[in-house]
Automatic annotation (TrEMBL):
<dbReference type="GO" id="GO:0000908">
    <property type="term" value="F:taurine dioxygenase activity"/>
</dbReference>
<dbReference type="Pfam" id="PF02668">
    <property type="entry name" value="TauD"/>
</dbReference>
<keyword id="KW-0479">Metal-binding</keyword>
<keyword id="KW-0560">Oxidoreductase</keyword>
<dbReference type="InterPro" id="IPR051323">
    <property type="entry name" value="AtsK-like"/>
</dbReference>
<protein>
    <submittedName>
        <fullName>Alpha-ketoglutarate-dependent taurine dioxygenase</fullName>
        <ecNumber>1.14.11.17</ecNumber>
    </submittedName>
</protein>
<dbReference type="InterPro" id="IPR042098">
    <property type="entry name" value="TauD-like_sf"/>
</dbReference>
<dbReference type="InterPro" id="IPR003819">
    <property type="entry name" value="TauD/TfdA-like"/>
</dbReference>
<dbReference type="GO" id="GO:0046872">
    <property type="term" value="F:metal ion binding"/>
</dbReference>
<keyword id="KW-0408">Iron</keyword>
<dbReference type="GO" id="GO:0005737">
    <property type="term" value="C:cytoplasm"/>
</dbReference>
<feature type="domain" description="TauD/TfdA-like">
    <location>
        <begin position="3"/>
        <end position="275"/>
    </location>
</feature>
<comment type="similarity">
    <text>Belongs to the TfdA dioxygenase family.</text>
</comment>
<keyword id="KW-0223">Dioxygenase</keyword>
Length: 282
């Protein structure tokens, strides 16, 4: 297996590998997992695999989960169909820098995403290294966010465009989750900046140590959250991947964010994603 690093901070392409082989080859799978922990996101070309092989490879990382808004393939539970139709106003709605499903108490470990159909130009996806984002924060910001926690919401994101009854039902099914602003990666021990577009507010900011007067609470917390979420926008932390049919991306959802670039109407873009259940951030 050849590993070609794509940027200085995140991303590598695996060459000479067939993911279908890793379903049964323990040594190959272990090497792929080690490279994922090192590079955060891995890319492969020319992976002409079946849906069953796609699911079986992802299941080597752990149990798969369904998405409550985006439908799964009827014959392959856990294989989410991300099909974008340029004629649909909803499907034209993209995107923001995010870590998948942080509105869950236990957000996903990661995902395996395969391209079925894509435009000849456009429709790239970008990833950002949130370990690097935390590492390069000024010391005074690190001190300010130590021990800070934040709320993450599906209601305020996926639910926002729904009629109020459906939106409230969605929130009842998936109540807002609370996570540390800086999580510890459970396998590497690295510190990760863990706020994104699903994050609505800090839950323990308003203390005597942080707030002198009431104005500090409203402006101070929102300005800090905006500053932290903007760290994913920094190019030095990013990699950008151009899709082709049968290309695959595997990413560690615990240490990265991603952004699907919506620049390709009137073309279609069809992707299928298997997402692996994760653990509660600490």
């Amino acid at each position: 297996m050849q590993v070609e690093q794509l940027t200085c901070s995140i991303g590598a392409e695996l060459i000479g590998v067939k993911l279908a082989d890793a379903v049964h080859d323990d040594g190959l799978f272990a090497e792929i997992r080690a490279q994922l922990l090192k590079h955060r996101v891995l890319f492969l070309r020319d992976q002409d695999i079946t849906r069953a092989e796609h699911v079986a490879f992802a299941q080597r990382f752990g149990e798969l989960e369904d998405h409550p808004v985006i439908g799964s393939h009827p014959d392959h539970p856990g294989l989410v169909q991300v099909y974008k139709n340029p004629d649909s106003p909803v499907d034209r709605y993209e995107n923001s820098w995010h870590t998948d499903a942080t509105w869950r108490e236990a957000p996903p470990l990661g995902s395996v995403l395969r391209c079925l159909e894509c435009p000849p130009v456009g429709g790239d996806t970008m990833w950002a290294n949130m370990v690097e984002a935390y590492k390069h924060l000024p010391d005074e910001i690190k001190a300010k966010i130590e021990g800070l926690r934040a709320r993450h919401s599906i209601e305020a994101t996926f639910g926002a465009a729904m009629p109020i009854e459906k939106r409230l039902a969605l929130k009842a099914q998936y109540p807002d989750a609370e996570h540390p602003v800086v999580r510890t990666h459970p396998e590497t021990g690295e510190k990760v900046l863990f706020v994104n577009s699903f994050t609505t507010h800090f839950t323990n900011f308003h203390t005597a140590e942080r707030v002198r007067v009431g104005q500090d609470f409203t402006q101070g917390s929102s300005e800090l959250l905006r500053h932290l979420t903007s760290q994913a926008h920094i190019p030095e932390y990013q990699v950008r991947w151009r899709w082709k049919p049968n290309s695959i991306a595997i990413w560690d959802n615990r240490s990265s964010q991603h952004y699907a670039v919506m620049d390709y109407p009137p073309c279609h873009r069809k992707m299928e994603r298997a997402t692996i259940m994760g653990d509660k951030p600490f």
